[in-house]
Every structure is written in C-alpha cells, then in structure tokens.
Amino acid sequence: MVSDADQVSEREAAIRAVNAITPWFELKQISKIYGHGESEVRALDRIDLSIYAGEFVSVMGTSGSGKSTCMNIVGCLDVPTSGTYLFHGVDVGKLDRDQQALLRRHYIGFVFQGFNLLARTSALENVELPLVYRRVAKSERRERAMRALAEVGLAGREGHTPAELSGGQQQRVAIARALVTEPSLLLADEPTGNLDSARSEEIMQLLVRLNMERSLTIAMVTHEPDMAEFGTRIVTFRDGHIIDDQPTKRMIA
Amino acid sequence: MIFATFLMSLREIRRNTMRSILTMLGIVIGVAAVITMTIIGEGATQSVKNDISALGDNMLIVSPGAARRGPVSSGSKSFTDADVSAIESQIGGIAAMAPAASRGATVVYGNLNVSTQVMGTTEGYVEVRGYKLAQGRLLNDVDVRSGTAVCVLGETVRKALFGTGDAIGTSLRVGKVTCTVVGVLAPKGSSAMGQDQDDVLLIPLRQFQRRMSGNRDIPTIYISVDDSRPTAAVKARIEALLRERRGIQRGSEDDFNVRDMAEIAATVSSATGALTALLGAIAAVSLLVGGIGIMNIMLVSVTERTREIGIRIAIGALGREVMLQFLTEAVVLSTLGGVIGIITGVAMGFGVTSLMKIPFVPTPGIIIISFAFSAIVGVAFGYLPARKAAKLSPIEALRHE
Ligand SMILES: Nc1ncnc2c1ncn2[C@@H]1O[C@H](COP(=O)(O)OP(=O)(O)OP(=O)(O)O)[C@@H](O)[C@H]1O
Ligand SMILES: [Mg+2]
Predict the structure, then answer these.
(1) Selecting from 3.30.365.10, 3.30.450.20, 3.40.50.300, 3.10.20.740, what CATH number does the domain A22-116+183-252 have?
(2) Structural domain spans, chain B
(3) Which of A59, A69, A77, A224 should be mutated for ligand 1, with most atoms under 8 A from CB?
(4) Whether A86 contacts A76, CB under 8 Å
(5) Residue B395 half-sphere exposure toward CB, CA atoms < 13 A
(6) Ligand 1: which atom is nearest the Cα of residue A71?
(7) Does the CB of A239 have a partner CB in chain B at under 8 Å?
(8) What is the pLDDT of residues B350-383, one digit of tens each?
C-alpha cells in the first residue's frame, strides 16, 4: 500500500487541504540557548516549523545540530528560551505545568534518545506506566502493554528488566511505551539508532502503518537516509537552523 | 488514585529492597534504642519507688537527736511511755504506731546460732513497717503488756535456724532470754538501701527493756499516718507536741527529729529520675543518628529518584501524583520501621528488665514520641527530594546527575 504512490499523494493533498487552517503544531521563531557569555550555545536559532495532522516527518542533521532540543520542546519536556510554540493553536508557553503534563499524557508519545526506562522494572511494567497515569484498569492495562510489546517484537520478554535487555530491545520497549497509549502525536528521537537494518525496517513498517491507518502524526529523528525515506517529509537541521524541508521521494513520485 | 498510588509505592519499596531496608533500619534502631533505654530507666526508678513504698511511704520515724546531726545522737534523751501515750491520745490521723528499741544479738537454737537484729516493740510494728505474717500469730497486746517471753522471726532468721523444719512452738535463746516462737513473718526482701528486712527477730518491748537494755527508754517511735491525712501535717503536730513535752524553748533547736519516708522517697526518686534522663539523652542521640542515617540514604538515592521522577513526569504524571507516590512510600517505610522498632524496643526492654529483675514499665508517651520523630524524619527526607524534583522541568530531571 505504501508503494501505491497515487494513493499516498492523494492523501498528502487531503492532509494539506484540511490543515491549511491549523497545523498540528507550529514553532514560531523558537530559540534555545544554553549557558551564557563565552560558553553560550545556540542549540536552536529562531526556527519556524509547522507540522500537520497525519504527517510523518523525518528530522535529519549532523550531531549537535539541535534535533533533540527541538523534539524536547515539541514534547513539552523543555521550554524554549524565546519564541512561541502553538499546539493545536494553543500557546504551550501559557499553560501551567499540570496542563502541560496532561497534554503529554493524552496526546503525545515520546521515544527518548537515551530510552529512559525505569531501572529494575520489568518491560511490561515500563510499558504499562503511561496507562497507569491514564487510569486504565489493571487487566486492560496488562493486555494493551502485552500487545504493544508483541508489536515491537518483544513477546516473551515482558518480565525482563532493562538491565537484562540488549540496547535494541530496550529501545523497542521505549517505542512500545510511547505507542501503548495510542497517542495522536509520536515524537521519536532516533528510535532505530540501536537496531539492525531488518529490525529497523520492521519498526518503520509499524510506524508507517500507524501513520496511515490511525492517522498518527509522527516526528522522527534519524541519521539514516533509508529510514528517513519512510516518512512523508524530511526536515534537515544544521547548527540550530533548518536548512532544508522537502517531501520524500515517494511523496513526489 | 490513592489506592493505585499505594500499590505503586509498595511495588517501588519491594523493587528497591536494599534501599528500603537501610531506610527502615535507621528508624528501627532509633526507635528501638529510645524505647529500650527508657524502659530500663523507668524500671529502675519504679523498682526503687516500690522498695520505698514497701518500707511504708506514709511512715514517720521519730528518733532523738537533732536532724542535722543525724538520727542517733548521744546526749538527747530517748522517749518515754508517756510520750508514746501522749502522741497516741492527742494526735489524730495515726493509723498505727510502734515504739521500738533494738540491738544486735546472737540467737541460739540447739547447736545452731545466728546474729540478728532483735527488735523490742509492740504489735503495731508489723503494720507500720508493712510486714505480713506467714505462720503462727503476731505479738499481741497481752504479750506486750505482760512481757511474756515470746518472739516472731523474720524469714532470714527462720531459714538459718530451722531450714525446712517447723519453727512455731520451739524455744530459742536470744542473748540471755529464752523465748518461744509464736510466729514467722513473710519474706519482704531487701530495702531500697540494701538492708535485709527479713533479718530480724521481734520480741515484746517490755521484755526487751527488762532483759536486754535494762532501762525503759524508747529510742524510736514508728508511726503510720492514716492514708486520708497529709503526712506533713501530722508530722508538724507531733513535732509541736514533743517540743512542748520536752520543754524546748521557742527559738531553740529540736533535740529529736521526725523523718518522713515520703520525703526520702522523693529524694531517691529524683536521683533515679536523673538516671532516666541520662538514659533518655543517650537514646535521643541514637535517635538522631538513626535520623541522619535515614537522611543519608534518602539523599544518596536522590539522583536515581530524580531521574525516575523525570521519567514519570515526562510520560504524563502530574507533579502532585508523583509527590503523593513518594510520600506514600516514605510513610509506609517509616511506619513499618517504626512498628518494627517499637516491637524490638519493647522486647529488648522486657528482656533486660527481667534479667535485672526490675519492673517492666513501658511508657506510651516515649513510644509515641520516638515513633513520631522517626516518622517525621523518614517522611520529610523521602518527600522533600521528590518535591524538589517535581519542580524541575522534565528534561532537567532526566539529565540530573
Ligand atoms: N543541557 C545542555 N546544556 C548545554 N548545552 C546543551 C545541553 N543540551 C544540548 N546542548 C547543546 O545543544 C546543541 C544541540 O544539542 P542536541 O542534543 O539538540 O543535538 P542533536 O541534534 O540531537 O545531536 P545528536 O544527533 O548527537 O543527538 C549541542 O551543541 C549541545 O552541546
Ligand atoms: Mg539527539
């Protein structure tokens, strides 16, 4: 179905048409500055970026170019030094901590570059955690977490703690944790960084399927051009600026 | 949510077994130390108090000689029968009274002999001093007035002379007197001052005066004040009466003294109170050390916990949910530690007091205070880092080192 270029570009056109009014989220003149004086680092320098519902954006760029910083701001995990971040037209900067937390809880799934799993906690419990805060009943929680782990190819590993899992397996637990809540926006910071190409491909197929079937909006950081091509659009960073923003080949074709 | 949080906290406690145990250990040691120490201190105090009240805490002891120069002082005249009758007839509120004279003597039975304190007294003596009869009868009015040659033995004397045999009805030689045993006193143990109160032999006062001291002096009068009367008031009235009878001028010093056992009891228990305070201070130090231990463990785990808090908040937990979880965790650990501490402390206190043969008196106040202290420390140091971490932005918490 992905290979059916006509269908895809028709879909893309529909997305653009509907969302011409409101992007899913919009960064306006966002800057993030670390440190001050001599040691000041401009991780993001007045960037503008709009992403529409149903898009699958691949974010690329050299190491240290500000990709993670940008994802963290979009995920409401970090606050920009200046600029406005609109989430569905809502100015996130004006929300209090609890409102931001609820926004994360109900709309956003986040895959961290460093996984950030709870130590000494089984894969299953890690994946269940976001559902606990969503007040999902125990039996349903368990069932959904099991399903999410199976989807990322970790069936049978539910009881293992992060220390008992390989890097790639931990990464897949982190992906399962982000997807288990069926969020409307998935932010993934190098979700395939520790996976072999076959595994990476599987994860990409999963993301593409969710993007198509459930209209999951995705922003994914990756260093691999092959992986980036699974998306609908590639945004390239360099030194805190966006230097390129184009549809992928399959969208153009 | 509260219940879910509670379950989550229990899971966290189990997951971090070592940290949980160490945290609890601090509380357990602190609480147990305080409780054990105070139980021992209280037991010692109580034991002394019991001894004193066994001596008779509403007892007055009247003896010649100025109080300042000690109870027995030469030069001051003894009391007379008339003094005794005057006190008896003129002072109200006296429950029982016994004039007494004593001296050491050797008691011989067959080929056995034992040195003891021979006490010439009246039938009131047993009541005033709080003795009980084990066998036979006490000295009675008739014995005392006629001066019959009868005696009542203390347990120590009876055991030395008769062992397991029967003492009643046998004849003993007490100094130069021969007397018949009519009764045996129940054992009373040693006094607060360490005297064996059972090492005694009672004979009628008349008999003592006639055959042992050779005069009619009464060196001591024991008086038991009625429970309903203030001992101090009765004491004051006796003093006034005796001053008058002994012709002491206004302004000059008494040549006799009336000692109040309640006063002595107060003095002794203030001394043991100091002991309790000392033990309490030591215990407070161990509680403090326990508290610092808890603090340490909590602070050491802050880095890891801060990251954990970051993760939880990043995936959608509210700050207050995370704090509630940490608070519950701290409360559960502190309570558990406190309860184990109380059980350990009370058990150790029980063990030590029964080894020392002193009364086991747990003080609920101390138990509550020590428990509250460690609970507060535990909760504060479990909760404060959580509070601080929950105030960070999620990414700061995740990057915490
Ligand atoms: N907490 C921080 N304090 C100071 N500087 C920071 C901090 N976080 C990031 N930076 C700096 O900001 C810049 C952007 O970092 P960022 O993590 O966004 O890069 P990235 O594009 O994700 O790189 P990579 O591909 O290696 O993950 C870097 O120069 C980095 O050194
Ligand atoms: Mg990065």
Answers:
(1) 3.40.50.300
(2) 2-51+266-399, 78-254
(3) A69
(4) no
(5) 16
(6) 18
(7) no
(8) 999 999 888 888 888 888 888 888 778 777 877 8
